[in-house]
Amino acid sequence: MDKYEIIIFWSELDHCFVADVPELSGCMAHGNSYESALANAKEAVSLWVETAKEFGDPIPVPHGRRLAYA
Question: Could you give the CA distance from residue 60 to residue 4 in angstroms, rounded to a whole number?
Fold first, then answer.
C-alpha cells in the first residue's frame, strides 16, 4: 500500500477517533480507539485506490509525509 498521510483526531461530536486521508478526496474512517481508526483508514485507502483503478480515475501520488500522534 502507498504511504498516504493519515490524520487522526478525536471527534467530540461523534465520540470516536476520526482518520482523514486528505490526499484522497472523501477518504475517511473512524474507530473507538486510535489503533482501530488507523486500521480502518488503511482499509479505506485500499478500497479507495481499488475503486479508482476500476473506474479509470487518477490516483494521486502520495507525498510521503508522516504525522506523529498529537
Answer: 9
DSSP string of 16-37? EEEEE-TTSTT-EEEESSHHHH
**Encoded amino acid at 11, one letter:** S
Q: What is the mean pLDDT of the chain?
A: 91
Q: How far apart are CA 2 and CA 45, in angstroms?
A: 9
Residue 43 belongs to what H/E stretch?
helix 34-55
Q: Which of 21, 30, 8 is nearest to 49 (CA)?
A: 21
What type of residue sits at position 28?
A: M
Q: Tell me the pTM.
A: 0.86
For the segment 47-57, the average pLDDT, to the nearest whole number, is 98
Q: Is 44 in a helix, a strand, or coil?
A: helix
